[in-house]
From TrEMBL:
It comes from Planococcus donghaensis. It comes from the Bacteria. It holds the Pfam family HTH_30. This is Regulator of polyketide synthase expression. InterPro entries: CdaR-like_regulators, Homeodomain-like_sf, PucR_C-HTH_dom, PucR_C-HTH_sf. The lineage of its organism: Bacteria, Bacillati, Bacillota, Bacilli, Bacillales. Residues 237-294 form the PucR C-terminal helix-turn-helix domain.
């Protein structure tokens, strides 16, 4: 096939996989035997690209070559491509973990090599672009889930990479994997608007995802009705946010804020007197917490 293509497209060349070097003026394709060929864009009309894509696989040399497992997962999250032949057999629960690296800090190939060391088995990576994508983590009873806080510490100290993880929930079936995948990709964008935490779980992100769906006029109404005169009071907002994050535990919150617990109780009493909302009660605390997130 290479000989025939060479006759049609004299500029055809093979990709040097040892150096992964490529000319940006070339369009690249993967043959069925794994060989990567490139054709100079000056020899390709739109109809040529369409024709070549019907029997060759378009290839981006910036990204690692997809493994067979990654190809199957790519088909799983793109239902139109899924067939009986490329279905995946699950042997353990899995979860999608969205990652976002600061642009131009590390190549996709180098990142893939770096993260694989943290897992007991190969982790498929589905790239959205050259700095964002989804890790497919298999979670076995023997190994348990990975701590992404630890991964970040290592990547930042060893490779000086700034990265964020949005960790999805465990799933045991493939039904609904495609919409869940897309929800994780879109959800990561939403979360980045509200939180700067390097690692955030799906459950921690739920308030952000809910707020993002609330129309702006209703957001303003909630903020004004709940926070009232405390709008813009950063000290009180921080106090209540820390209280919620410490599971409404007075002692732990006082410790985190370096306050005496009686002083904290007094501040909560004052908030109740001024708003009629007692943040020591779960539903009141959640309403105020959502209003604080809107305020941000």
């Amino acid at each position: 096939m290479i000989h025939q293509l060479k006759e049609l497209y004299p500029s055809l060349q093979l990709l040097d996989q040892s150096t992964l070097s490529s000319d940006s003026a070339y369009k690249w394709f993967s043959l069925s035997d794994g060989v990567i060929v490139g054709i100079h864009e000056t020899e390709l009309e739109p109809r040529d690209l369409s024709l070549l894509a019907t029997f060759l696989t378009p290839y981006n040399p910036l990204f690692p070559t997809l493994t067979e497992e990654e190809k199957k997962w790519s088909d799983v999250v793109n239902p139109a491509l899924l067939t009986e032949e490329n279905k995946i057999t699950l042997n353990s629960p899995y979860r999608f973990v969205h990652f976002s690296i600061q642009e131009k800090q590390i190549s996709p190939n180098a990142f893939k090599q770096a993260v694989q060391d943290f897992y007991a088995q190969h982790v498929p990576i589905l790239w959205e672009n050259d700095h964002q994508g989804i890790l497919v983590e298999y979670v076995t009873k023997e190994d348990g889930p990975i701590s992404y806080e630890e991964i970040i510490d290592v990547l930042m100290s060893d490779l000086y990479i700034k990265i964020h993880f949005f960790v999805g929930p465990l799933r045991t079936i493939l039904d609904g994997a495609a919409p869940h995948y897309r929800a994780m990709v879109n959800g990561a964008k939403t979360v980045s608007l509200y939180s700067t935490k390097p690692v955030i779980s799906y459950t921690d992100a739920v308030p952000y995802l809910v707020i993002d769906q609330i129309p702006e006029p209703l957001q303003n109404e909630i903020r004004q009705s709940v926070l009232q005169d405390y709008q813009g009071d950063e000290e009180t907002m921080k106090m209540i946010e820390v209280f919620v994050r410490n599971n409404l535990n007075i002692s732990e919150t006082a410790k985190a804020l370096h306050m005496h617990r009686n002083s904290l109780q007094y501040r909560f009493d004052r908030f109740y007197e001024n708003t009629g909302i007692d943040v020591r009660k779960f539903h009141d605390a959640m309403a105020v917490y959502l209003a604080i997130l809107i305020e941000k």
